[in-house]
Amino acid sequence: MANDTAYQKCINPACAAEFDCGQAMFKCPNCGDLLDIKYNWDKIEVPHKMSYFSKRWATRDNRFDFSGVWRFRNLLNFCEDKYRVSIGEGQTILQQNSLVAKELSMNPKSLFLQYEGLNPSGSFKDNGMTAAFSHAVMVDAKSCACASTGNTSAAVALYAHSCGMKCTVFIGTGRIAFGKLSQAMDYGANTIQIQGDFDDCMKQVQDVCTKLGLYLLNSLNPFRLEGQKTIMYRIIEQLGWEVPDWIVVPGGNLGNSSAFGKAFAELKELGLINKIPRLAIINADGADTLTDLVNNKKLTWNNGNVDEKIINEYYDNLTAMNYSPHTIASAIEISRPVNLKKCLRAIDVCNGIVMAVSDDEIRDAKALIGKFGLGCEPASAATIAGLKYLLADGTIGKDERVACVLTGHQLKDPNVTVNYHKDKMGQYSNAPIEAENDLEQIIKLIK
Ligand SMILES: *Cc1c(COP(=O)(O)O)cnc(C)c1O
Ligand SMILES: [Zn+2]
After folding, report:
1. What's the average model confidence in pLDDT over 341-363?
2. Longest dimension (CA), the chain
3. What pLDDT was estimated at residue 426?
4. What pLDDT was estimated at residue 1?
5. Comparing C-alpha atoms, which of 372, 417, 404, 117 is closest to residue 250?
6. Cα 250 to averaged position of ligand 1 atoms, centre (Å)
7. Which of 127, 126, 97 is nearest to 111 (CA)?
8. Average pLDDT, the chain
9. Which residues of 110-130 are buried (b: 16+ CB within 10 A; e: fewer)?
10. Contact between residue 258 and residue 342 where contact means Cβ atoms under 8 Å apart
11. Quick one: which ligand is closest to 10's CA?
């Protein structure tokens, strides 16, 4: 069933167990660590230049050439055409935004916003789901599940129906943004609201999937990350196949940052790029495990020999404090990120940095992107909030080319937006003005 171009491999160098892609297991059965998808590049037709992929646009009546993910299928070659699921994901754009750049006092030509809100379910998650569902079809899964802060459930629900699979989504109580919850219900997912936060849901879903043999669709699933690599391919495609100086991304479960690091490591290995951009991962203050572990506890990838003691002590402490993360950026409200180790590897590969920003900074940044850009949801705006700091302290130069990944659509979380404007919470607040139903009065209000 599986082809011989790809296999799964445990990321723990002391284990390094390998498995074919015909199995669905999500964690190494030997040691419990994360799995990677590896490729036998010598058995794959890899183009000599990335520009080969742009040419596929001319044959976009082939739906795999139309997909912004599968257009790059040579670089995520783990399944045959017949298993591939696609609903037109990845038709996203990189917007050069001089107005936001000016507001940040940077070179107006050097800021780029990659708007992943344009995906079918309104977030970058579709890039990963198209890949993971293709694998689910390949292993003949009948039913699937995920834990979600919202966007994962929306994407899973949408893709499950497009390939005739049943799905159950687990969400925490009272945390999910309304736009996202409305999608899960509308797309017909079996939606279970657990009394707890995302980390509780994540634990339950893993046990449920193991017990009932459901296909798991969290970013623990290594096939999802393969699809998410293409966000980076599309950014450099739109820069004329030039690599920017910086990629800025919000950090939640750390699937994206992990996938981006893998994408660049592979492109470099294949000789398709000559430079790897630096990666800035932005947490919210109220969910800053990665920032704390990297900046304060000095946790590093260390050639795969990650110091587990530091992580375990940190998590034990969270448990002892009964800690629950809190931020208005609900998509990154996660305190035990499942892809932590892979993210450390990405930081290593991309000479990356991490930092955290406050909810107020996220709100202002979101309004700024709304005013001068295409809009986005709160978690996505952590990128611009973080960039502001990194420019101020000189980490990022004013003339360096920066691509910020806007992970989710503006309409995902309307409550945060409306409250910010109505309650005049920040410098870009733009509340509606109440007016009597009278022409004279109304005319006075026109600016
Ligand atoms: C899932 C999500 C994130 C977090 O991404 P990770 O890959 O889990 O770090 C950020 N923003 C949005 C809008 C999301 O849906
Ligand atoms: Zn292992």
Report:
1. 98
2. 78
3. 96
4. 46
5. 404
6. 7
7. 97
8. 95
9. bbbbbbbbbbbbbbbbbbbbb
10. yes
11. 2
368 is written with which tokens? 């700024």
d(C-alpha 382, C-alpha 106), whole Å: 17
Neighbours of 294 (CB within 10 A): 22
Ligand 1: residues with CB < 6 A are 123, 125, 151, 219, 250-256, 331-332, 377, 379-380, 407-408
Domains and CATH numbers, the chain: 93-121+224-422 (3.40.50.1100)
15 CB-contact burial (10 Å; exposed 0-12 / middle 13-18 / buried 19+):
middle
In 3D space, the residue among 258, 294, 288 whose CA is nearest the CA of residue 34 turns out to be: 258
In 3D space, the residue among 362, 193, 355, 376 whose CA is nearest the CA of residue 280 turns out to be 355
Distance CA 224, CA 146 (A): 12
Calculate ∠ Cα 159-216-186, nearest 5°. 35
230 backbone dihedrals φ, ψ, rounded to 5°:
-70, -15
DSSP H/E element including 220: none
d(CA 342, CA 257): 8
Tell me whether strands 278-284 and 353-357 are parallel, antiparallel or unpaired: parallel
Instruction: Name the more confident of 142 and 4.
Output: 142
Residue 113 has φ and ψ, to the nearest 5°, of -115, 120
Q: Which atom of ligand 1 is nearest to the CA of 254?
A: 9
Is the model's pTM score more than 0.85? yes
> For 282-306, how does the pLDDT look when each residue is reduced to its tens digit (9 = 90+)?
999 999 999 999 999 999 999 999 9
Per-residue pLDDT reduced to its tens digit, 36-77: 999 999 999 999 999 999 999 899 999 999 999 999 999 999
Tell the residue number behind the tokens 């470099």, with chain if given: 268
Number of the ligand 1 atom closest to the C-alpha atom of 408: 13
| Closest-CA residue to 100 (of 439, 316, 380, 328) | 380
208 exposure class (CB count in 10 Å sphere: 0-12, 13-18, 19+): middle
- Give the CB-side neighbour count of residue 33, counting CA atoms within 13 A: 20
**Sheet strand arrangement including 111-115:** 93-96, 111-115, 402-406, 246-250, 278-284, 353-357
Residue 32's Cβ-count burial label (10 Å; 0-12, 13-18, 19+) is exposed
Nearest atom, ligand 1, residue 253 CA: 8
Q: Rounded to 5 degrees, what angle do the CA atoms 29, 33, 36 make? A: 95
DSSP state of 23: -
- What is d(CA 381, CA 115) in angstroms, rounded to the nearest whole number? 11
